[in-house]
Each structure stands twice: as C-alpha cells, then as structure tokens.
C-alpha cells in the first residue's frame, strides 16, 4: 500500500454501516442479499458499501456456485487490519441481526440435510471424482497415530459419512461419538461399526452438543467442513466442546474453482485457504500445531490441519 492509498483505506471504515458489515462478516461469509436483510439496506446501497470495502482491501469476495460471498480480508494491511477486526469482535452484534444470522444458518443446514436425504445413493459416485476415504484416510490416520493420544480419550467425529474413519477411531479409543444431521448417513455409519460397543450415534449438529454441555478430548472433521452452513461458527462450537489441551483435526479440500461440486456433491463452500482456517482457529483460541497436504487427481488438493485448545 502506497501513501496515496492510506486515506482511502481508513475512509472506507468511517461509515457506521460499513463497520456493521465488517462486524457481521466476523461470523462467516455472506451474500449481498443476506447482508441487505440483516442491515435493512437496499441492494444498490449494500453493493456500494461492499465495493468501497473491497477496493480498500477490507473485504474479499469469492464466487460459490451462482452466489458471490463476501468475507473479511485475510491479510493485515498496515499491521492494523486484524487488530481492528479483533476489536469489532469484542462488541455484541445487534440482537435483530443475530436472529437473522441464526435463520440463515438454519436455512443452509436444512438445505444440506435435504441434499443428503435425496442424493445418498449417487453421492459416492460424484464424490469419487474428488476424493474418497481411501485417498486421504490412511494419511489422516497416520497423522492421528503420530499425536500419541491416550486410548482413554473421548473422541467426536462430525459427519462420519459411511463410517470408515469412525471404525478406525473405535479401534483406537475407548469412547467414540459420531454425529450427523442426516439420519440416512448415520445408518450407513452404524452398519460400518456395528460390532463395536464403544461408539455412540447422535442425529443433530454440534450446536446441540454445546447446548448439552458435552465435552471431548479430540474433535475430527473429515471432508465435512465444506458442507456446513457456517464453517467459522463450527470452529467456534468446537472451542466450547473441547476440553483444555484437546485437539481439533480438520481434513478438507483446499480452495478450488470446480463449481459442479456444489450441485452434485452438496458442497456449500469450494474448499478453504489454509490461512483462512488458521485465522478462524486463532480467533477462537486454538493454536496451530501442524499441516499436511495431499495432492489428488482432477486438480483437487486435500489438507489436514491440527489445532490445540489452550
């Protein structure tokens, strides 16, 4: 940034509406119409505010299917940008906005649930074009084993799919839980681990577990985070669910531009930049431990990120 850009950089956040936009984007990415509804601003006005913020480098936009989503910038211009974001996060969001955020999350969650109910038979066929368990599972398990966690620990896998990884967890730990919003997917996982009596199954979301004040030593997401309505919100839930010293392990796609995955695989997000995951985790009190990357066919790449809870 040169000296001529500094004035515009700070002027972009001098408007209360634009500050409100940045505060809202602290909880996830949203489209223009969603932001319009939350702040009761006409589309033309919202588009103007977002253009100002984007030009100044405060927000980034990314196309997900037919929708453009806006999020906070991942950089730290003038070494002050992330500090301002942290300051905004200290202030409570307006109650009316919070209610609308919850409604948006519920709508996205219901959309994901419907997809897996209606497309369970062909899901694996399409998923094979991206990645199957056999492509990432062995390395993810090798990484888990290298962490040398006690067998007595309580482990949660979110969205266990067909249950291959859940079965491996049951062989390694005494107390394992699989949770999924789709009863159809849970039935498949149950069939995979039927002979193990140390596995519990719950139909629901991590929000339900947080409401029940449940606690775990390890939480694992395998190729799931790109399906959830609000990925950062999911990480925030994990901060409540993990005991001190616990581990959050995320295996997911790196960011890609293959939009067919949304329609055919039910992906809500086209992967994630590693720095994006790191910032969300750091914001909610996690420390980054290590990363692994696995190149795959058809231009997709899988990442595994390990975070520890203070």
From TrEMBL:
Pfam families in the cross-refs: HTH_5, Methyltransf_23
Domain HTH arsR-type: 1-92
Recorded coiled-coil stretches: none
Recorded superkingdom: Bacteria
PANTHER family given in the database record: TRANS-ACONITATE 2-METHYLTRANSFERASE-RELATED
Protein name: Metalloregulator ArsR/SmtB family transcription factor
Native organism: Reinekea marina
